[in-house]
Amino acid sequence: MFRYLLYQIEYRRWLFLALAVALIIHVVPVETSLTPAGKSLLAIVLMTVVLVIFEPIPLPVVSFLIAVLEVLFGIARPAEVAQSFMSDSVIFIMGSLMLAVAIVKQQLDKRILFFILRLTKDNVRLTVMALVFIAGLLASVMGEHSVAAIMLPVSLVLVRIWQENQLRESKQPVVFLMAVAYGAAVAAIGTPSGGARNAIMLSYWDRVSGVHVSYLEWIVVMYPLVLAQLPILYFLVLRFYRPAAGGLANAYSFLRREMHQQRQFSV
Protein backbone atom coordinates (compact mmCIF):
# COMPACT_ATOMS: atom_id res chain seq x y z
CA MET A 1 0.00 0.00 0.00
CA PHE A 2 2.81 2.39 0.92
CA ARG A 3 4.70 1.58 -2.29
CA TYR A 4 1.54 2.17 -4.31
CA LEU A 5 1.09 5.53 -2.59
CA LEU A 6 4.67 6.52 -3.40
CA TYR A 7 4.14 5.45 -7.00
CA GLN A 8 1.03 7.62 -7.31
CA ILE A 9 2.84 10.60 -5.79
CA GLU A 10 5.71 10.16 -8.24
CA TYR A 11 3.37 9.62 -11.19
CA ARG A 12 1.12 12.57 -10.31
CA ARG A 13 3.83 14.92 -9.10
CA TRP A 14 3.08 17.50 -11.79
CA LEU A 15 -0.57 17.49 -10.80
CA PHE A 16 0.33 18.21 -7.17
CA LEU A 17 2.81 20.88 -8.26
CA ALA A 18 0.22 22.57 -10.49
CA LEU A 19 -2.40 22.58 -7.73
CA ALA A 20 0.15 23.87 -5.21
CA VAL A 21 1.18 26.73 -7.51
CA ALA A 22 -2.45 27.69 -8.09
CA LEU A 23 -3.24 27.59 -4.37
CA ILE A 24 -0.17 29.62 -3.38
CA ILE A 25 -0.86 32.36 -5.92
CA HIS A 26 -4.50 32.44 -4.87
CA VAL A 27 -3.83 32.63 -1.12
CA VAL A 28 -0.60 34.62 -0.73
CA PRO A 29 -1.23 38.39 -0.79
CA VAL A 30 0.73 40.21 -3.48
CA GLU A 31 0.99 43.98 -3.85
CA THR A 32 -0.06 44.35 -7.47
CA SER A 33 -2.74 46.11 -9.43
CA LEU A 34 -4.50 42.80 -10.00
CA THR A 35 -7.95 42.39 -8.53
CA PRO A 36 -8.59 39.28 -6.40
CA ALA A 37 -10.44 37.71 -9.32
CA GLY A 38 -7.55 38.56 -11.65
CA LYS A 39 -5.03 36.97 -9.28
CA SER A 40 -7.15 33.84 -9.03
CA LEU A 41 -7.45 33.69 -12.80
CA LEU A 42 -3.65 33.98 -13.12
CA ALA A 43 -3.31 31.04 -10.74
CA ILE A 44 -5.65 28.94 -12.89
CA VAL A 45 -3.77 29.89 -16.07
CA LEU A 46 -0.39 28.84 -14.63
CA MET A 47 -1.89 25.61 -13.33
CA THR A 48 -3.38 24.89 -16.74
CA VAL A 49 -0.04 25.46 -18.48
CA VAL A 50 1.65 22.88 -16.23
CA LEU A 51 -1.15 20.34 -16.68
CA VAL A 52 -1.24 20.72 -20.46
CA ILE A 53 2.54 20.47 -20.89
CA PHE A 54 3.17 17.48 -18.61
CA GLU A 55 -0.33 15.89 -18.83
CA PRO A 56 -0.45 14.16 -15.43
CA ILE A 57 -4.22 13.84 -15.95
CA PRO A 58 -6.24 13.49 -19.18
CA LEU A 59 -6.72 16.77 -21.03
CA PRO A 60 -10.56 16.59 -20.95
CA VAL A 61 -10.32 16.49 -17.16
CA VAL A 62 -8.22 19.65 -17.24
CA SER A 63 -10.99 21.58 -18.98
CA PHE A 64 -13.55 20.56 -16.37
CA LEU A 65 -11.08 21.29 -13.56
CA ILE A 66 -10.77 24.85 -14.86
CA ALA A 67 -14.54 25.28 -14.65
CA VAL A 68 -14.63 23.93 -11.10
CA LEU A 69 -11.79 26.18 -9.92
CA GLU A 70 -13.42 29.25 -11.45
CA VAL A 71 -16.38 28.65 -9.15
CA LEU A 72 -14.29 27.72 -6.08
CA PHE A 73 -12.06 30.77 -6.45
CA GLY A 74 -15.06 33.07 -6.88
CA ILE A 75 -14.20 34.20 -10.41
CA ALA A 76 -17.67 33.45 -11.76
CA ARG A 77 -20.97 32.04 -10.58
CA PRO A 78 -21.85 28.43 -11.45
CA ALA A 79 -24.53 29.57 -13.89
CA GLU A 80 -22.05 31.80 -15.74
CA VAL A 81 -19.47 29.01 -15.99
CA ALA A 82 -22.06 26.56 -17.28
CA GLN A 83 -23.27 29.11 -19.80
CA SER A 84 -19.75 29.57 -21.17
CA PHE A 85 -19.70 25.89 -22.18
CA MET A 86 -22.70 26.54 -24.41
CA SER A 87 -21.41 29.61 -26.23
CA ASP A 88 -21.68 29.88 -29.99
CA SER A 89 -17.97 29.18 -30.48
CA VAL A 90 -18.14 25.94 -28.46
CA ILE A 91 -21.16 24.68 -30.40
CA PHE A 92 -19.43 25.67 -33.63
CA ILE A 93 -16.33 23.64 -32.75
CA MET A 94 -18.46 20.71 -31.60
CA GLY A 95 -20.19 20.62 -34.97
CA SER A 96 -16.85 20.46 -36.80
CA LEU A 97 -15.71 17.54 -34.64
CA MET A 98 -18.99 15.71 -35.19
CA LEU A 99 -18.52 16.09 -38.94
CA ALA A 100 -15.06 14.52 -38.65
CA VAL A 101 -16.47 11.57 -36.67
CA ALA A 102 -19.12 11.02 -39.34
CA ILE A 103 -16.47 10.97 -42.08
CA VAL A 104 -14.44 8.31 -40.27
CA LYS A 105 -17.57 6.30 -39.46
CA GLN A 106 -18.54 6.17 -43.13
CA GLN A 107 -14.93 5.33 -44.10
CA LEU A 108 -14.67 8.37 -46.31
CA ASP A 109 -10.99 8.57 -45.36
CA LYS A 110 -10.34 5.39 -47.35
CA ARG A 111 -12.46 6.69 -50.19
CA ILE A 112 -10.31 9.82 -50.24
CA LEU A 113 -7.14 7.72 -50.48
CA PHE A 114 -8.68 5.57 -53.20
CA PHE A 115 -9.56 8.69 -55.18
CA ILE A 116 -6.03 10.07 -54.73
CA LEU A 117 -4.37 6.88 -55.94
CA ARG A 118 -6.64 6.62 -58.96
CA LEU A 119 -5.29 9.98 -60.06
CA THR A 120 -1.65 9.71 -59.01
CA LYS A 121 -0.96 5.96 -59.49
CA ASP A 122 2.70 5.32 -58.55
CA ASN A 123 3.80 8.97 -58.69
CA VAL A 124 4.95 9.83 -55.17
CA ARG A 125 5.27 13.56 -55.81
CA LEU A 126 1.72 13.81 -57.12
CA THR A 127 0.52 11.79 -54.12
CA VAL A 128 2.25 14.21 -51.76
CA MET A 129 0.69 17.14 -53.61
CA ALA A 130 -2.76 15.57 -53.31
CA LEU A 131 -2.29 14.97 -49.58
CA VAL A 132 -1.20 18.56 -49.00
CA PHE A 133 -4.10 20.10 -50.89
CA ILE A 134 -6.82 17.71 -49.71
CA ALA A 135 -5.73 17.95 -46.08
CA GLY A 136 -5.58 21.71 -46.45
CA LEU A 137 -8.99 22.10 -48.06
CA LEU A 138 -10.63 19.82 -45.49
CA ALA A 139 -8.87 21.53 -42.57
CA SER A 140 -10.11 24.91 -43.70
CA VAL A 141 -13.68 23.69 -43.14
CA MET A 142 -13.65 21.24 -40.25
CA GLY A 143 -10.50 22.00 -38.24
CA GLU A 144 -6.89 20.91 -38.45
CA HIS A 145 -7.02 18.43 -35.55
CA SER A 146 -10.06 16.68 -36.97
CA VAL A 147 -8.47 16.43 -40.42
CA ALA A 148 -5.23 15.13 -38.94
CA ALA A 149 -7.21 12.36 -37.21
CA ILE A 150 -9.07 11.57 -40.43
CA MET A 151 -6.04 11.59 -42.73
CA LEU A 152 -3.65 9.76 -40.39
CA PRO A 153 -4.96 6.29 -41.36
CA VAL A 154 -4.58 7.33 -45.01
CA SER A 155 -0.94 8.26 -44.46
CA LEU A 156 -0.23 5.09 -42.48
CA VAL A 157 -1.56 2.91 -45.30
CA LEU A 158 0.86 4.64 -47.67
CA VAL A 159 3.72 4.24 -45.19
CA ARG A 160 3.03 0.54 -44.77
CA ILE A 161 2.87 -0.11 -48.51
CA TRP A 162 6.03 1.95 -49.06
CA GLN A 163 7.91 -0.12 -46.48
CA GLU A 164 6.79 -3.34 -48.13
CA ASN A 165 8.27 -2.20 -51.45
CA GLN A 166 11.34 -0.37 -50.15
CA LEU A 167 13.97 -0.86 -47.47
CA ARG A 168 12.51 -0.99 -43.96
CA GLU A 169 15.00 1.53 -42.63
CA SER A 170 14.03 4.16 -45.20
CA LYS A 171 12.93 7.45 -43.63
CA GLN A 172 11.17 8.69 -46.74
CA PRO A 173 7.62 7.59 -45.73
CA VAL A 174 7.62 10.50 -43.27
CA VAL A 175 6.85 12.76 -46.23
CA PHE A 176 3.26 11.46 -46.29
CA LEU A 177 2.76 12.26 -42.61
CA MET A 178 4.30 15.70 -42.93
CA ALA A 179 2.19 16.51 -45.98
CA VAL A 180 -0.98 15.90 -43.97
CA ALA A 181 0.25 17.65 -40.82
CA TYR A 182 1.54 20.80 -42.50
CA GLY A 183 -1.29 20.99 -45.02
CA ALA A 184 -3.88 20.90 -42.24
CA ALA A 185 -1.99 23.41 -40.09
CA VAL A 186 -1.48 25.96 -42.87
CA ALA A 187 -5.07 25.92 -44.14
CA ALA A 188 -6.81 26.07 -40.76
CA ILE A 189 -7.16 29.85 -41.05
CA GLY A 190 -9.24 29.56 -44.21
CA THR A 191 -12.69 29.67 -42.60
CA PRO A 192 -14.03 30.30 -39.08
CA SER A 193 -14.68 26.58 -38.69
CA GLY A 194 -11.06 25.76 -39.51
CA GLY A 195 -9.96 25.91 -35.89
CA ALA A 196 -11.09 26.65 -32.37
CA ARG A 197 -9.03 29.83 -32.28
CA ASN A 198 -10.92 31.21 -35.28
CA ALA A 199 -14.33 30.77 -33.69
CA ILE A 200 -13.07 32.11 -30.37
CA MET A 201 -11.64 35.22 -32.03
CA LEU A 202 -14.93 35.88 -33.82
CA SER A 203 -16.77 35.63 -30.52
CA TYR A 204 -14.17 37.82 -28.80
CA TRP A 205 -14.34 40.56 -31.45
CA ASP A 206 -18.12 40.60 -31.31
CA ARG A 207 -18.27 40.67 -27.51
CA VAL A 208 -15.45 43.11 -26.73
CA SER A 209 -15.32 45.52 -29.65
CA GLY A 210 -18.68 45.00 -31.30
CA VAL A 211 -17.04 44.02 -34.61
CA HIS A 212 -19.09 41.34 -36.33
CA VAL A 213 -17.32 39.32 -39.03
CA SER A 214 -19.51 36.96 -41.04
CA TYR A 215 -18.43 33.55 -42.30
CA LEU A 216 -18.24 34.81 -45.89
CA GLU A 217 -16.28 37.94 -44.96
CA TRP A 218 -13.67 35.81 -43.20
CA ILE A 219 -13.33 33.56 -46.28
CA VAL A 220 -12.93 36.51 -48.65
CA VAL A 221 -10.01 37.84 -46.61
CA MET A 222 -8.26 34.65 -45.49
CA TYR A 223 -8.82 32.00 -48.15
CA PRO A 224 -6.60 33.65 -50.79
CA LEU A 225 -3.79 33.42 -48.26
CA VAL A 226 -4.45 29.69 -47.85
CA LEU A 227 -4.42 29.12 -51.61
CA ALA A 228 -1.14 31.02 -51.88
CA GLN A 229 0.56 29.07 -49.07
CA LEU A 230 -0.36 25.52 -50.09
CA PRO A 231 1.78 25.41 -53.28
CA ILE A 232 4.72 26.89 -51.37
CA LEU A 233 4.23 24.28 -48.65
CA TYR A 234 4.20 21.48 -51.23
CA PHE A 235 7.59 22.51 -52.63
CA LEU A 236 9.04 22.92 -49.13
CA VAL A 237 7.93 19.42 -48.12
CA LEU A 238 9.54 17.97 -51.23
CA ARG A 239 12.66 20.05 -50.63
CA PHE A 240 13.25 18.88 -47.06
CA TYR A 241 12.03 15.25 -47.25
CA ARG A 242 13.00 14.36 -50.85
CA PRO A 243 10.83 11.29 -51.60
CA ALA A 244 12.21 8.83 -54.14
CA ALA A 245 10.23 7.70 -57.16
CA GLY A 246 8.12 4.56 -56.93
CA GLY A 247 7.24 2.60 -53.82
CA LEU A 248 3.47 2.84 -54.16
CA ALA A 249 2.94 0.33 -56.95
CA ASN A 250 0.71 -1.92 -54.85
CA ALA A 251 -1.22 0.80 -53.02
CA TYR A 252 -4.11 1.06 -55.45
CA SER A 253 -4.67 -2.70 -55.75
CA PHE A 254 -4.31 -3.18 -51.99
CA LEU A 255 -6.92 -0.56 -51.21
CA ARG A 256 -9.25 -1.86 -53.89
CA ARG A 257 -9.14 -5.37 -52.40
CA GLU A 258 -9.79 -3.98 -48.95
CA MET A 259 -12.78 -2.00 -50.14
CA HIS A 260 -14.25 -5.06 -51.86
CA GLN A 261 -13.84 -7.14 -48.72
CA GLN A 262 -15.74 -4.59 -46.67
CA ARG A 263 -18.44 -4.36 -49.36
CA GLN A 264 -18.95 -0.69 -48.68
CA PHE A 265 -17.33 0.69 -51.77
CA SER A 266 -17.97 0.16 -55.46
CA VAL A 267 -15.37 0.55 -58.18
Outline the structure in words.
It is a single chain. With 267 residues, the chain is mainly alpha-helical. The chain is built from 13 helices and no strands. It has helices at residues 2-11, 13-27, 36-54, 59-72, 78-84, 88-105, 108-120, 124-142, 144-165, 174-187, 196-209, 215-241, 251-262. Helix 8 (124-142) packs antiparallel against helix 12. It is globular.
Count of helices? 13
What is the C-alpha radius of gyration, as a whole number of Å?
A: 23 Å
Question: How confident is the prediction overall: mean pLDDT?
Answer: 79
Helix/sheet category:
mainly alpha
Note the overall shape.
Answer: globular
Helix-strand sequence: HHHHHHHHHHHHH
Instruction: Extract low-pLDDT stretches.
Output: none
User: In percent terms, what proportion of residues is strand?
Assistant: under 5%
Total domain units: 2
> Can you give the helix content as a percent range?
over 70%
Largest sheet: none
Roughly how many Å apart are the termini? 60 Å
Number of strands: 0
Q: Secondary-structure blueprint of this entry?
A:
Blueprint: H1 2-11, H2 13-27, H3 36-54, H4 59-72, H5 78-84, H6 88-105, H7 108-120, H8 124-142, H9 144-165, H10 174-187, H11 196-209, H12 215-241, H13 251-262
In short:
With 267 residues, the chain is mainly alpha-helical. It is built from 13 helices and no strands.
